[in-house]
Design goal:
The protein is an alpha/beta fold and 253 residues long. 42% of the residues lie in helices and 14% in strands. The chain has an 8-stranded parallel beta sheet with strand order 1-2-3-4-5-6-7-8. Helix 7 links the parallel strand 7 and strand 8.
């Protein structure tokens, strides 16, 4: 069985087809789906979906791309959610220096405050690290948490090693399926297997085998896992067992 450690099941691309998405994932062998929130506005929708589908587990957090409109009071709401609903992680949180006109100070404020909440409630974190890896690492060293997942990792071997030292697993997702992603595929092939988890980031980051324009889905996770197996010279079953154990070692429930 497989665990999709990152899927935005409430995304508008799925419309009202979540029941089909979850059913198809189960049929493909995906037994658990982690659903991270991105802003206060979707805390309720994530909670509702995860209550409706028991194989889905929520994470609550404020995504860096939503910090421009987030208010400090949103952190109090987040704290209430962490206390009352006990999610599987704090996330999706982090920093993003790829977007236009980003406000680094504002992103960093919300990131640090959410790391403090993760420490308070002893929860792992789901990290968004696009073009901000070194700044993320700096803050993780200053505000240590119990670990988590560096989602959509695309950094260097040295950066990967630093995350691993801090107790993090790495997710590569569908990006790993592209033959031109040579550096990423090299990491997937050579990093310790115990440091790798599987994810789709559905409906985003479609794998190479998916027709253009179609949303990514958790049901494609085993085919993404097959790429990892091929890169490492392993069987799909071996990858499924190892990555499932890796994910289970991170999450608290």
């Amino acid at each position: 069985m497989f665990i999709d450690t990152h899927c935005h099941l409430d995304a508008e691309e799925f419309g009202d087809t979540q029941a089909d998405v979850v059913r198809d994932a189960h049929a493909a062998g995906v037994s658990r789906i982690v659903v991270p929130a991105v802003a206060r506005a979707n805390f309720d929708s994530v909670r509702s979906l995860c209550e409706q589908y028991p194989s889905c587990s929520p994470a609550y957090g404020i995504h860096p791309m939503y910090t421009d409109t987030a208010m400090p009071n949103d952190l109090l709401v987040l704290r209430d959610y962490l206390q009352q609903h006990r999610p599987i992680a704090v996330g999706e949180i982090g920093m993003d220096f790829f977007i236009n006109h980003y406000d680094q100070a504002r992103q960093e404020f919300f990131f640090v405050e959410q790391l403090k909440l993760a420490r308070e409630f002893d929860l792992p974190v789901l990290l968004h690290i696009r073009k901000a890896t070194d700044t993320i690492l700096k803050n993780l060293r200053q505000h240590k948490v119990r670990g988590g997942i560096a989602h959509a990792f695309n950094g260097s071997l040295q950066q990967a090693d630093e995350f691993i030292k801090l107790g993090f697993k790495l997710g590569f997702g569908g990006a790993m399926t592209y033959s031109r992603a040579t550096k990423l595929r090299e990491l997937a092939a050579t990093l310790p297997l115990e440091s790798i988890v599987l994810e789709t980031d559905a409906p985003d980051i479609p794998p190479d085998f998916l027709d253009r324009g179609l949303p990514n889905e958790p049901k494609y996770l085993p085919r993404i896992a097959q790429t990892l197996a091929d890169l490492r010279g392993m069987t799909l079953e071996e990858v499924a067992i190892a990555t499932t154990q890796n994910a289970q070692s991170i999450f608290v429930n």
